[in-house]
From TrEMBL:
Residues 529-586, 1057-1162 form a coiled coil. Keywords: Coiled coil, GTP-binding, Hydrolase, Immunity, Innate immunity, Nucleotide-binding. This is GB1/RHD3-type G domain-containing protein. PROSITE patterns: G_GB1_RHD3. GO terms for molecular function: GTP binding; GTPase activity. CDD domains: GBP, GBP_C. It holds the Pfam family GBP. It comes from the Eukaryota. Belongs to the TRAFAC class dynamin-like GTPase superfamily. GB1/RHD3 GTPase family. InterPro entries: G_GB1_RHD3_dom (IPR030386), GBP_C (IPR037684), Guanylate-bd/ATL_C (IPR003191), Guanylate-bd_C_sf (IPR036543), Guanylate-bd_N (IPR015894), P-loop_NTPase (IPR027417).
């Protein structure tokens, strides 16, 4: 049930947090989460103190609710919400949104008003704009928020250059109602009466001309005409006199102006009758739950500085809603099933309950789900419902079996007692036994005829009595050999008949399962067809609404004399019609695709599908024979990470730039074993023919973000011009964020220093001497001298210092190499063909020194927290950064770490588990000794954990490592189970072979004579010893023997009863001895199982220890790297402080000292937190161990 209108008063939906940022209030979100009905959303916007809230109260059918103000102060803050049952549309909820008054000068931040207006547009199906007086140019200028909608709202993540955006906006924007309050004019034009709608459309007429003033005049009018397909106007007289206006909430209807009351009632009727259900693109209806999620998606985009995008919102909302839809539908199905089912139950009745529950669950899913175009989530729900139903069927079988076994024990108790006292071991006993067995079987069937497992349980019981019946037959001296043979054949026929009955019973159950599958398929298909038809109808209506609006606008433009605008509008109309035709023609294929998806899901759920397949994935390593393009521009000029390979690093001999985008070459590191050297060659910066300088900025930023050493290559000298060309350095803080949110006083430079690469300036074609005065200097001193700051605070000095300060503050390690010209001008054109002998010897020496420095000093790539990056992670990182740039965001390292962690850790679990399973399957040959299996598990687990630790990333709470532990333990349990089953099979094969002579003797009645019992016992003992000798290495030896001896208990007892050489006392003594032997065998079986259980616990303890050790070692390595990073930054800041003091820049040195103190404090805090971190890890892994251990019992132990 929806919560409907059980809200006694409005609540705040969107408010400002303590930092002044918008947020969705949990109380309101919880209310919306409880509304599963479609919602009609009406929001009111307008300047403050214009009486918006009163109209909302009227729509809620209340006198008070939303706060009304009678002073100059704005009453409503943020966006308030009131959910009430829709008075006209049953099964719908009317959501009223009252927004903060716009234009309150005391707010200071006008952007806040813009976002409130945008959210009202985005969340509503009808937007009411409330204003005072008249609709004139001033009123329209005050509605400037309309003109900013295209800047602050995007319909599509990426729009084509010539795409008609107005049609997109019209489809998703609400209908627009202008409520003009305190209206005192007559609705006349040229002495002819006009409607309020005519009044609005007249106010929206465009002016001819192209002057700035005309453009300014037309802009809000064009926006209203182009964005809102449905426009309506209501004019209201003043509701009461000035004095009464102060107490509007207290006035009764009789105290209100009758004309105002009539207009207010007309307004409410229009809203109730004409406001559509809230939908998103594609005509998808929104429920209260979806509206709450949608509000959170939009507000989060605004909080993070992004432009709300409806297409992205649909994707985000779809994920949230569909996961929620599956959970809610499954929960409903399970609750319905558990409430209505009382096991055991007739399968047909269970099937009916399942069908009804499934239908209702699918109804809920269809209602709550959103944009599940490929039926991914519906297939998931189908699978989960099928699993739950299968489990319920299984529980039904088991419950029926238990009841049947209980009845069987009760009915056949008389037979068991007669067998025990040997009454059938006399002439005529066989006939009596057969008659009693038949009579009791009929009695059993009469009492269990409604049970689904009746024949199956009876079949198993009669099978166990086969040997006993045979013994009784052999002992019956009243029958001749021929008669005995005839009776044996009759017994076999009865057994076959009983097996046939049981098989028939099982076939009926199987047929029911397939019928249920067919019903499920039909129900899902019907639901999809109805849902698609509803959505397509809504889409068609949306298209029709937009088309009609554009046709009206076309006529209006022609009437006003805007011929060229009318022609443009006609093109938009033609484009829209073509789109509608295309949509219509694609409907059958969409439906077919949906049905194929559901059909495929049904096939997967049907019995007999294949279990897991094990595959091995090999890494490609660094065996690249040539570079490949890593990042390039797509067809729209946007950067993207390229998947396929290309040729090699190109050297250019013309004025044209050769390298485009970023190229990559991966080679084995020449000095660091087990490392790969990744070389990134970037597109040349400053090529004027590119036109888009921002492209160069992003290429530079990506080089900084992806590298552990950044080489900046320039020609000539390092002078002011060279540093000004390196302006990209000064833009790093605008284009890269280390943290998602930075406090005002936080030292950003320390954050950048930790994560930025070391910086190497390579100065090519250097012709100067490295001297200052007459003193010889190094290339590093040359660089540091060029980075010396000037004293002063003039704009010129600031401009001079800016790139220098950025290099000093962002790069803790700076290095410089100067290279003479490598060859003559003529030879430079064929650099790729020159041998080392043809190169300048000094250049070659410098190049070798440069290479040695890079090989020796370039550290492995890390990101915040000292976490080392593998090649896999680098590829994922590139995609995360490029995706941020493509979507118009600023790459943020903290967000990248979060995104990368999800990608890497999921993959780390998969790959580690794959290694573990491959290792286990390749090394084990079942059955085998548990200790050997444990050792293989230990080695495989260790390798898997090492793979996980290497690949995983930022798994601070060990969520993914715990997941891996659980999955490996599950696989190990399965392997142990398979080992026991294989051992049991081998033991059973040996047992049948060894005890065959005993079985033959029993069958032929060899032991049914005086002294036969002793012979039977001696044979049993001898064969038991033979069996143990042949199966002593098998883990299921005693358990299989125990089950066999238990079956032979009744046979032994009958042979004992038939042995006339023993008196009653001797027989009693033998019975007691038999009981003791059975107890001893049970003890042996129990000890055998306890050893297996102890081994499992040992494995778990060792596994826990291994995981903790691996994490601690990993953390120690990471903390050591973090410590080195912090030390590196600290040393750089200390050097910088000394340099500032030397240059007498006291104020800057003082600020640097503050940063140093803060950094030391951070390092001290980090050092102190180490023990607690380790404890938390041990606790986390310990908790995982506890989760997988308690109550674990193998199937064989049940």
């Amino acid at each position: 049930m929806a919560c409907g209108g059980l809200m006694s008063a409005p609540v705040c939906l969107i408010e400002n947090d303590e930092n002044g940022k918008l947020r969705v209030r949990k109380e309101a979100k919880d209310i919306l989460d409880g509304i599963n009905q479609p919602v009609v959303v009406v929001s009111v916007v307008g300047l403050y103190r214009t009486g918006k809230s009163y109209l909302m109260n009227r729509l809620a059918g209340q006198q008070s609710g939303f706060a009304l103000g009678s002073t100059i102060e704005s009453k409503t803050k943020g966006i308030w919400m009131w959910c009430v049952p829709h008075p006209k549309k049953e099964g719908h909820t009317l959501v009223l949104l009252d927004t903060e008054g716009l234009g309150d000068v005391r707010k200071g931040d006008e952007k806040h008003d813009t976002w409130i207006f945008c959210l009202a547009v985005l969340l509503s199906s009808t937007l009411v704009y409330n204003s005072l007086g008249v609709i004139d140019n001033t009123a329209l200028e005050k509605l400037h928020y309309i003109t900013e909608l295209t800047e602050n709202i995007r319909v599509k993540a990426e729009a084509g250059q010539h795409e008609d955006e107005s049609a997109d906006f019209m489809r998703v924007f609400p209908s627009f109602v202008w409520a003009v309050r305190d209206f005192t004019l007559q609705l006349k034009k040229e002495d002819e009466p006009i409607t309020s709608d005519d009044y609005l459309e007249g106010a929206l007429e465009l002016k001819q001309g192209s002057s700035p003033q005309t453009e300014q005049y037309n802009l809000p009018r064009s926006c209203l005409r182009n964005f809102f397909a449905v426009r309506k106007c209501f004019v209201f007289q003043r509701p009461a006199n000035t004095e009464d206006m102060w107490k509007m909430e207290e006035l009764t209807e009789t105290e209100l102006d009758s004309k105002f009351l009539e207009q207010a009632n007309s307004f409410c009727r229009y809203i109730y009758n004409n406001s559509e259900t809230k939908t998103l693109s594609g005509g998808r209806t929104i429920t209260g739950t979806a509206l709450g999620n949608l509000a959170e998606v939009y507000v989060e985009a605004i909080r993070t500085g992004n432009v709300p995008c409806l297409e992205n919102a649909v994707v985000s909302l779809a994920k949230i809603q569909n996961v929620h839809a599956v959970e809610e539908a499954l929960q409903f199905y399970m609750t319905e099933l558990f409430n209505l089912v009382q096991l055991p139950i007739n399968p047909a009745e269970l099937s009916k309950i399942h069908t009804v529950a499934e239908k209702k669950a699918i109804d809920i899913f269809i209602t709550v789900s959103f944009n599940d175009n490929d039926q991914i989530y519906q297939k998931d729900l189908m699978g989960k419902i099928h699993e739950e139903y299968q489990q319920m069927c299984q529980q039904n079988y088991e419950a029926s079996q238990l009841q049947c076994e209980k009845v069987l024990c009760d009915v056949f108790d008389r037979l068991e007692k007669v067998i025990s006292d040997g009454s059938y071991l006399k002439p005529g006993g066989s006939q009596k036994y057969t008659d009693m067995l038949r009579q009791l079987s009929e009695e059993y069937r009469a009492r269990t005829h409604s049970q689904i497992m009746s024949e199956e349980v009876l079949s198993k019981f009669l099978k166990t009595k086969e040997d006993i019946g045979n013994i009784i037959l052999q002992a019956d001296e009243s029958l001749s050999s021929a008669e005995q043979e005839k009776e044996v054949e009759k017994m076999k026929t009865e057994i076959l008949k009983q097996q046939k009955r049981s098989l028939k019973e099982q076939n009926r159950l199987q047929e029911q399962v397939f019928k249920d599958m067919q019903i499920t398929y039909d129900e899902n298909v019907n639901q999809i067809i109805h849902q698609m038809e509803r959505e397509q109808d809504r889409m068609r209506r949306d298209h029709q609404r937009v088309l009609e609006a554009k046709l009206r606008e076309n006529q209006a433009l022609l009437k006003m004399g805007f011929q060229w605008k009318a022609a443009q509008m006609q093109r938009e109309i033609d484009s829209l019609k073509a789109e509608m035709d295309k949509e219509k023609s694609s409907q059958p294929s969409k439906l077919g695709r949906a049905l194929n998806c559901i059909g495929m899901a049904t096939t997967l759920l049907a019995p007999g599908f294949t279990p897991k397949l094990i595959g091995v994935v090999m890494a490609c390593g660094g065996l690249m024979s040539a570079p490949v393009c890593l990042i390039e521009n797509d067809d729209n000029g946007k950067l993207h990470v390229r998947k396929e390979a290309s040729t090699s690093f190109a050297l250019g001999s013309t004025i044209e730039s050769k390298t485009k985008g970023i190229w990559m070459w991966c080679v084995p590191h020449p000095y660091k074993e087990g490392h790969t050297l990744v070389l990134l060659d970037t597109e040349g910066l400053g090529d004027v023919r590119k036109g888009d300088e921002k492209h160069d900025t992003w290429i530079f930023c990506l080089a900084v973000l992806l590298s552990s050493t950044l080489v900046y290559n320039s020609l000539g000298v390092i002078d002011n011009t060279a540093l000004e060309k390196l302006h990209y350095i000064t833009e790093l803080t605008e284009n890269i964020r280390v943290k998602a949110e930075v406090s005002q006083d936080e030292d950003k430079s320390a954050d950048f220093m930790r994560v930025f690469p070391s910086f190497v300036w390579a100065v090519r074609d250097f012709t100067l001497e490295l001297k200052i005065g007459n003193k010889q200097i190094t290339s590093d001193e040359y660089l540091e001298s060029a980075l010396t700051l000037k004293s002063g605070c003039s704009p010129q000095t600031e401009q001079y210092n800016l790139p220098r300060r950025c290099l000093r503050h962002f790069f803790a390690v700076r290095k410089c190499f100067v290279f003479p010209r490598p060859a003559s001008t003529q030879n430079m054109r064929r650099m790729e063909q020159l041998t080392e002998k043809e190169l300048d010897s000094e250049f070659l020496e410098q190049a070798n020194t440069f290479c040695h420095y890079i090989f020796d000093s370039a550290d492995p790539k890390t990101i915040s927290g000292g976490r080392i990056i593998t090649g896999t992670a680098l590829g994922n990182l590139a995609e995360v950064y490029v995706e941020a740039i493509r979507s118009g965001k600023v790459p943020c390292l903290e967000n990248a770490v979060v995104s990368l962690a999800k990608i890497q850790n999921v993959r780390a679990v998969e790959e580690a588990l794959q290694i573990y399973m491959t290792e286990m399957f390749s090394m084990t040959q079942l059955p085998m000794c548990p200790e050997e299996l444990s050792n293989i598990h230990k080695v495989a687990e260790q390798k898997a954990v090492e793979v996980f630790i290497t690949m995983s990333f930022n798994d601070n709470d060990q969520i993914y490592q715990r997941e891996l532990m659980g999955k490996m333990f599950d696989e190990y349990q399965q392997m142990c189970q398979q080992n026991q089953e294989e051992s049991a099979k081998q033991c059973e094969a040996v047992l049948h072979e060894v005890f065959d002579t005993l079985e033959q003797g029993v069958f032929h009645g060899s032991y049914l004579r005086p002294g036969g019992y002793r012979q039977y016992k001696d044979t049993l003992t001898q064969l038991t010893n033979d069996y143990r000798a042949r199966t002593h290495s098998q883990i299921m030896s005693e358990e299989v023997l125990r089950k066999f001896l238990k079956k032979k208990k009744d046979i032994g007892n009958m042979i004992l009863q038939a042995d006339q050489s023993l008196n009653a006392a001797e027989q009693e003594k033998e019975v007691q001895r038999l009981k003791n032997e059975i107890l001893e065998q049970q003890q042996r079986g129990l000890e055998e199982q306890n050893r297996l259980q102890e081994q499992l616990f040992k494995d778990m303890q060792r596994s826990h220890k291994e995981h903790v050790n691996q994490i601690i070692h990993q953390m120690e390595r990471e903390q050591e790297r973090m410590r080195r990073d912090n030390e590196r930054v600290l040393e750089a800041k200390l050097r910088e402080k000394d340099a500032l003091l030397q240059k007498d820049l006291q104020e800057q040195a003082f600020r640097m000292q503050s940063q140093i103190d803060r950094l030391r404090s951070e390092m001290h805090k980090e050092e102190k937190s180490k023990p607690s971190t380790f404890e938390r890890i041990a606790d986390g892994i310990g908790a995982a161990a506890e989760l997988v251990l308690p109550g674990f019992v193998m199937k064989w132990f049940k």
